[in-house]
């Protein structure tokens, strides 16, 4: 008989969440045709109260059997998600860990600290002698903090010197502005870690404008197509990227659907590693259709 | 934006005209409910409607405060950030008091008290800058919006402030339980709304707010202490933000730099949809309640259907907001 | 204070050596003034003489720069912003002082609302408001919003508000400027009722006959100086005017030149129906001054606004210079040489927060374009001309118009309207709040314009003005033309008979010269 | 919000007082520059200053439009979303025209034309709803804010619209190059500002805007076509948003649902800091320019120092905004 799956994700307020929305929609379209007896309810929310409202509505008015959720702010969402679970629904949590263990049936996780640590490892490797670097952070929210801590932990004990870090709000325009000012402020920068490809794109334009493309390199994160193409082309300014694919939402939806439809028992944790994308393996990550 | 003065005669203003203007928001609300019912059989269930009302209660309570501020010709852009900082401080206070007070209602009550106090203090600050400092309300509250937002980010160290789980469990019922099946948030919202309506219509304070918003000079010449009344509107707004946060914290059990983002816009929109004039002079608390509920229902209805791409939610919202106001204004020309 | 206490002759309120400067501009110089219980004491003087400033000081709305005020024999500092009302000193401001969004009842009780159990006693306030309005014979719903009332009704609300207070000293700044004879008489009845109870009344007016009728003593101010305080029994209107203006005032009204009976019609109104107007028809000839008389709310303003396109016309035809004229925008009527000057200078006439220059030229900016851009020096010249022509006295030319004295605002508005160089001018209460000296000047200007071949409609509640100026007088009643008077028929009695509905001309007469 | 009438004296308004009020924003600007200089030696370099000015130009041009809208007593909350949708459509148009027009200036010019046209159309839409529909400007533009934002999200499929790389290279110089070392955005900003100042002060349109904002009724009685003038302010606003986007697109060559978020707030803040009154009736274009530059410098200075925790950026911003206005308003009481 009919099965309804609710999918709740944060609104497309920047590149990565844009990708999440895109891949979720893709997966839903694909699975709806494969399984005509599965209905999907899809909602994206700009903040936690709205996201809680969305899942309340899914339960109260759409009778969902399972919920796939990428919580914008996991701490704020925990108790609301727990209610869904307590109501007997199958719950899949994506990317962000809830603040109570064992709420979800299935956890498809990205690895935020790993994203920072991977980038740090690369910096250590290419700048063994140390050097000045700057960091362009996202928004002051926990994910950003995890990535940042992962990175700082990774470069601990090296001679890498973080000159400054500022928030660029996961936004190209802010990436451009902050980088412009860092370039004004610091005559010697060897490396830039932006932890996000949207920010990188802005930073790159600022570096080009200043004509300092050859003095430094930029490492972002998430695997946006525009950056991947540069990496694949061997661009010296963006030698590598760190994957953190928004497609993890699709994986989560697929696993959940499989569980409900074919009674495949899925549960536990699926950690999607954050890996270093280089010129050599970039082709693996390229996807011409992705808007992200 | 009002039509020319001589349009209405002195006398027969009562019958037809006022009714239509009054009914405007209600009509929009009715149409929206009808839409909901046609879209989904579960829409008009007790569960769904209490869900919507309960979650509209934060914005609703804040918007009732905003009704007074706006009626008196002011504006408060800082309410969203203020809510965040109050939530953050409340959580910190409660966590911090656990060792001395233990897990239980006393901690929660202390936290509540702190929240309301802090709201009042924030209101005093806004109000003093505006009335004593004579700085445009838009600027003051834009400034404090940034300041409060920064403060909560700073307190949370860029992350999230979470309430101790055991305390959260004690506190939780304040959002999720209720009296005779009516959730507490709805009860509080209703009480604040009724009190607000009475204060607006049946007290000198409410009357003076309207007078000040309509013509400050006239109010002053009627020996109304304009500065004090205006200050009071900001304090009331602050306290009501505090009350809203009391209901918000048990729902999310946490606060972060994203808490309450854009609430100010939603609150002001609710007020204006409800028929209060942005330029001041005329306020309707019950209108605000209707306005806020309309906004809440829009989100709910969007979740009831799968026809509109989620990307276009904002467009749907925008169209409904304009239509809701068109319903009450459009007739003027007719 | 031991001297005159207790005796009936002792002053309730007195000012001693009051001076006032706004910034560095002196406005009042060492004025002495007093008022006794049960007395009406009038203050007269030219526009800008300082009357309003003096009484604002006497009621606490302004603080004197030097000098002292005694109340009940004790030297006091009056609380600001109407706080003196609690002491029994109530002021009706010259400019309407009502919040447009409030209702009549709200306004009457604003700042001293009646309460029951801590909540507003709305029913009682409405009842009492209705009662006061009743005593003033004003037919306005206490629940009506102020912004739906006519200027005259608003003025009556102000009066109602003031007399409903427990006043011991009632100060009225030109309360009759927008009232017609009937309302004025009602007001006077109320004033007499109050003075009989021992209330002291300070009364400002530019209408000298009112002063003669009402006041026991008159204080004359000129340029901020106290000229004299004298008993009215010793005065004639001429001598008052002499004291005010400092010169002889013969011939307030210029001689009427004979209207040309064959002059072409410049404005014809046929069966006009609009809000407040029920089937009005009349003609205006070139070079003619046509007076419009009637009671408050008789629809004179409504006719004018419908003609120039300020309000919607339901039916009827209008011709200007023989051409059909269906103005839907004021700009069209101005372009056709037809200008209307509102009587509501504060609400509709002037931008109070702006200076004299932008106000004067607002209607006629096109005239001041040079190469497509505004030329301030050309505007400045226009202002100089207008200041000379209409004797606009602003002690500082850059001051916001809202700070000018009432009469000078009125003169500026006249100047603004005349800037359009209209062929047909509709003036609504053209001399509202203007002193006799300037009035004479304005009357001469109007007569001169007519002699030049301009046509003028004068809507006025001052019957003498209508009679003194007009070649013909239209009397309106309840939105219709009640009658048209010509030549020797133009008398106060005739006008009143038509206005009050005692007499009526044949239905739907075509009224023309 | 203005002080009572009698507070200020009639005359000596010219000398000391007016100078202070006028100088207010300039003083704040000067202090900010001084602060920048003490904090970082690179602050007062040609490069840094042109960077800041160039990136302030978008908001600046939009804020000049907002100065007219606000002076006439209106409000436009939709400018940020409008910018995003214009940028998105411009990019789509250019990408779409490449096959027919080839890579080169013709494509870029066609895109520019489309951008300006679309801005005008959006302005007409806002303006018509407000003047003919008689709906409160706040509501209309809050509605279109949501509609435009949704539209760009929809067009970009939730992601980013990117300009073809080769066209982007042709277009790039419009942001990055300049004349005699002055970047084009600064030149355009300056031209728009000067033109705006002239229009505001020396044309009937500017005068009419102030008259309407000051007292709509008086404006109507003074034969001003209130609706048309007001409509025109919204169209001007739309066109200027279009102009701003012409400079924005070549910078990064992309548009997404985040483009222009909160620009409306920044633009309005710039206008008010510059001394234009939010209630209408008095507008200063040059003040707006100063206000926008102040806002730009605040961000720049924050990035040039390490004393303030990044968490507190918003607080710093808020304090400076309030101080900037205090500088021009506070003296009143003195
Ligand atoms: N607040 C103010 N600031 C500056 N000047 C003022 C202010 N109020 C009044 N004045 C000036 O003081 C003078 C006296 O004004 P006032 O209003 O007392 O005259 P008035 O005798 O009432 O005249 P009118 O008959 O026209 O009403 C005028 O020159 C006026 O411009
Ligand atoms: N636009 C309108 N809509 C409804 N009623 C109106 C309108 N304009 C005027 N009236 C009514 O029509 C009547 C005539 O008003 P109007 O102001 O024209 O009279 P008036 O003779 O000029 O009197 P006043 O002495 O007050 O100037 C009044 O009762 C007024 O309330
Ligand atoms: Mg006066
Ligand atoms: Mg009239």
What topology emerges from the helices and strands here?
The complex is a heterotetramer, with 1 copy of chain A (292 residues), 2 copies of chain B (334 residues) and 1 copy of chain C (513 residues).
Chain A lengths: L2 E8 L4 H20 L3 E8 L2 H15 L3 E4 L4 H13 L3 E5 L11 E4 L2 H15 L4 E7 L4 H14 L4 E8 L4 H14 L5 E3 L3 H14 L6 E3 L5 H8 L8 E2 L5 H15 L5 E4 L4 E2 L4 H4 L7
Helix pairs in contact in A: 1-9, 2-3, 4-5, 6-7
Chain B lengths: L15 H24 L6 H26 L7 H23 L3 H27 L5 H19 L4 E3 L2 H7 L1 H4 L1 E2 L2 E2 H19 L1 H11 L1 H6 L4 H27 L1 E3 L6 H11 L11 H20 L8 H17 L5
Antiparallel strand pairs in B: 1-4, 2-3
Helix pairs in contact in B: 1-13, 1-14, 2-8, 2-9, 2-11, 2-12, 2-13, 3-4, 3-5, 3-11, 4-11, 8-9, 9-11, 12-13, 13-14
Chain C lengths: L12 E10 L2 E11 L4 E6 L5 H8 L7 E6 L2 E3 L12 E4 L11 H5 L6 E2 L2 E2 L1 H14 L15 H14 L4 E5 L7 H16 L3 E5 L3 H7 L2 E6 L2 E7 L5 H9 L19 E10 L2 E9 L3 E6 L5 H9 L4 E8 L2 E2 L5 H6 L2 E4 L3 H5 L6 H6 L7 E2 L2 E2 L1 H15 L15 H13 L5 E5 L7 H16 L3 E5 L3 H7 L2 E6 L2 E7 L5 H8 L14
Parallel strand pairs in C: 3-10, 3-11, 6-9, 9-10, 15-22, 15-23, 18-21, 21-22
Antiparallel strand pairs in C: 1-2, 1-4, 4-5, 7-8, 11-12, 13-14, 13-16, 16-17, 19-20, 23-24
The site of one magnesium ion has 4 residues of chain C, from α8.
Subcellular location (chains B, D): Cell membrane
InterPro entries (chains B, D): ABC_transp_permease (IPR001851)
Keywords (chains B, D): Cell membrane, Membrane, Transmembrane, Transmembrane helix
């Amino acid at each position: 008989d009919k099965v309804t799956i609710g999918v709740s994700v944060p609104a497309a307020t920047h590149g990565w969440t844009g990708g999440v929305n895109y891949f979720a929609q893709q997966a839903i379209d694909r699975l709806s045709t494969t399984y005509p007896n599965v209905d999907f309810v899809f909602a994206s929310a700009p903040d936690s109260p709205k996201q809680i409202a969305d899942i309340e509505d899914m339960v109260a008015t759409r009778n969902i059997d399972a919920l796939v959720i990428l919580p914008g702010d996991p701490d704020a969402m925990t108790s609301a998600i727990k209610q869904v679970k307590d109501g007997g629904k199958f719950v899949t949590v994506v990317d962000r860990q809830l603040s109570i263990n064992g709420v979800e049936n299935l956890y498809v996780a990205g690895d935020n600290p790993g994203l920072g640590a991977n980038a740090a490892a690369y910096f250590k490797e290419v700048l063994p002698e140390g050097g000045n670097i700057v960091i362009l952070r996202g928004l002051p929210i926990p994910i950003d903090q995890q990535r940042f801590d992962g990175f700082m932990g990774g470069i601990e004990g090296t001679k890498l010197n973080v000159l400054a870090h500022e928030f660029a709000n996961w936004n190209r325009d802010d990436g451009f502005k902050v980088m412009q000012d860092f370039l004004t402020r610091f005559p010697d920068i060897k490396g830039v870690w932006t932890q996000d490809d949207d920010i990188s794109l802005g930073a790159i334009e600022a570096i080009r404008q200043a004509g300092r493309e050859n003095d430094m390199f930029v490492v972002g994160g998430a695997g946006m197509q525009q950056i991947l193409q540069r990496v694949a082309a061997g661009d010296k300014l963006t030698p590598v990227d760190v994957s953190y694919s928004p497609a993890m939402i699709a994986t989560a939806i697929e696993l959940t659907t499989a569980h409900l439809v074919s009674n495949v028992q899925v549960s536990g944790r699926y950690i999607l590693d954050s890996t270093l994308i280089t010129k050599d393996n970039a082709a693996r990550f390229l996807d011409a259709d992705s808007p992200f | 934006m009002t039509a020319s003065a001589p349009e209405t005669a002195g006398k027969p203003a009562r019958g037809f005209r006022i009714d239509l203007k009054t009914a405007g928001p209600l009509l929009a609300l009715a149409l929206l409910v009808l839409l909901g019912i046609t879209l989904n059989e579960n829409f008009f269930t007790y569960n769904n409607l209490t869900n919507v009302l309960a979650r509209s209660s934060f914005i609703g309570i804040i918007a009732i405060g905003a009704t007074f501020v706006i009626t008196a010709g002011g504006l408060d852009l800082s309410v969203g950030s203020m809510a965040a900082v109050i939530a953050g401080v409340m959580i910190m206070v409660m966590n911090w008091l656990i060792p001395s007070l233990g897990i239980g209602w006393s901690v929660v009550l202390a936290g509540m008290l702190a929240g309301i106090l802090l709201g009042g203090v924030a209101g005093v600050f806004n109000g003093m800058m505006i009335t004593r400092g004579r700085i445009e309300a838009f600027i003051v509250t834009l400034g404090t919006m940034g300041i409060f937002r920064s403060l909560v980010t700073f307190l949370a160290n860029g992350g999230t402030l979470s309430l101790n789980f055991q305390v959260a469990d004690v506190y939780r019922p304040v959002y999720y339980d209720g009296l005779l099946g009516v959730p507490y948030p709805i009860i509080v919202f209703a009480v604040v709304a009724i009190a607000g309506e009475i204060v607006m219509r049946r007290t000198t304070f409410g009357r003076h707010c309207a007078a000040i918003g309509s013509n400050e000079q006239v109010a002053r010449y009627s020996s109304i202490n304009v500065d004090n009344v205006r200050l009071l509107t900001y304090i009331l707004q602050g306290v009501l933000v505090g009350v809203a946060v009391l209901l918000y914290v048990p729902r999310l059990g946490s606060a972060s730099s994203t808490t309450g983002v854009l609430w100010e816009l939603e609150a002001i929109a609710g007020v204006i949809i409800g028929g209060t004039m942005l330029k001041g002079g005329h306020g309707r608390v019950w209108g605000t309640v209707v306005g806020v509920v309309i906004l809440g229902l829009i989100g709910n209805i969007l979740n009831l259907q799968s026809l509109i791409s989620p990307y276009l939610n904002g467009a749907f919202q925008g169209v409904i907001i304009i239509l809701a106001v068109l319903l009450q204004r459009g007739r003027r020309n007719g | 204070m031991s001297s005159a206490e207790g005796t009936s002759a002792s002053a309730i309120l007195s000012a001693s050596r009051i001076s006032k400067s706004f910034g560095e501009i002196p406005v009042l110089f060492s004025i002495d003034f007093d008022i006794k219980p049960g007395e009406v004491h009038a203050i007269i003087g030219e526009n800008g003489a300082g009357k309003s400033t003096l009484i604002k000081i006497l009621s606490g709305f302004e603080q004197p720069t030097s000098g002292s005020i005694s109340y009940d024999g004790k030297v006091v500092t009056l609380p600001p912003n109407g706080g003196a009302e609690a002491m029994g000193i109530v002021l009706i401001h010259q400019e309407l002082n009502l919040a447009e969004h409030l209702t009549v009842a709200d306004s009457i009780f604003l700042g001293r609302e009646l309460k029951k159990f801590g909540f507003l006693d709305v029913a009682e306030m409405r009842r009492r408001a209705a009662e006061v309005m009743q005593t003033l014979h004003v037919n306005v719903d206490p629940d009506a919003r102020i912004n739906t009332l006519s200027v005259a009704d608003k003025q009556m609300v102000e009066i109602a508000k003031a007399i409903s207070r427990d006043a011991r000293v009632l100060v009225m700044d030109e309360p009759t400027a927008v009232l017609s004879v009937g309302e004025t008489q009602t007001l006077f009845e109320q004033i007499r009722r109050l003075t009989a109870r021992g209330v002291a009344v300070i009364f400002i007016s530019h209408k000298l006959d009112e002063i003669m009728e009402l006041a026991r003593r008159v204080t004359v101010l000129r340029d901020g100086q106290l000229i004299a305080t004298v008993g009215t029994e010793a005065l004639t209107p001429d001598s008052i005017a002499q004291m005010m203006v400092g010169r002889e005032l013969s011939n307030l009204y210029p001689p009427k030149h004979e209207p040309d009976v064959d002059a072409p019609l410049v404005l014809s109104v046929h069966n006009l129906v609009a809000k407040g107007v029920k089937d009005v028809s009349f003609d205006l000839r070139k070079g003619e001054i046509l007076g419009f008389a009637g009671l408050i709310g008789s629809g004179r303003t409504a006719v004018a606004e419908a003609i120039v396109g300020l309000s919607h016309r339901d039916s009827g035809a209008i011709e200007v210079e023989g051409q059909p004229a269906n103005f839907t925008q004021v700009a069209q009527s101005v372009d056709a040489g037809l200008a209307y000057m509102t009587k509501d200078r504060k609400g509709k006439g002037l931008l109070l927060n702006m200076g004299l220059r932008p106000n004067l030229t607002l209607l006629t900016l096109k005239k001041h374009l040079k190469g497509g851009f505004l030329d301030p020096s050309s505007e400045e010249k226009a202002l100089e001309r207008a200041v000379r022509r209409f004797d606009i006295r602003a002690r500082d030319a850059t001051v916001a118009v809202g700070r000018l004295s009432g009469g000078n605002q009125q003169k500026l508005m006249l100047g603004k309207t005349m800037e359009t160089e209209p062929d047909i001018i509709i003036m609504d209460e053209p001399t509202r709040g203007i002193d006799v000296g300037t009035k004479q000047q304005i009357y001469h200007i109007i007569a001169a314009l007519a002699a030049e071949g301009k046509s003028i409609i004068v809507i006025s509640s001052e019957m003498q003005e209508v009679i003194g100026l007009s070649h013909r007088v239209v009397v309106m009643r309840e939105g219709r033309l009640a009658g048209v008077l010509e030549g020797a028929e133009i008398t106060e009695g005739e006008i009143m008979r038509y206005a009050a509905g005692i007499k009526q001309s044949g239905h739907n007469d075509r009224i023309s010269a």
